[in-house]
Amino acid sequence: MADAEDVRRIALGLSGVVEIESDGFDFRVGGRGFVWSYPERIPGQRRTIRTDVAVVYVGDEAEKQALLLGEPELFFTAPGYDGVPLVMLRLPEVGVARLGELLLDAWRMRSEGTLDPAAPESG
């Protein structure tokens, strides 16, 4: 079972990551977001920042669909995210090791071409 503090610890352990001020969490590398708190939008209500759900960059639509269909207990999507390579991850349902794999993959895809390979790891 993972939580927002696990997201923060893992994300900040990756090279070049910056945390953006947020009501939840929001991490970027090279100016590109790779994981942040889910801004839930329910019609007729104010947006709610959900720190129990992470929005994770997955690279492409094929990977998104594979995750959504293969592990619906972990991943979902929402209106407004159609055609966008992002999935929502239910943190209480995922183990910390799997969360680490997902964030590392997202970081790798978003950091391509943005980091100095000689730069030391952060954290």
From TrEMBL:
Top-rank lineage group of the source organism: Bacteria
Protein name: MmcQ/YjbR family DNA-binding protein
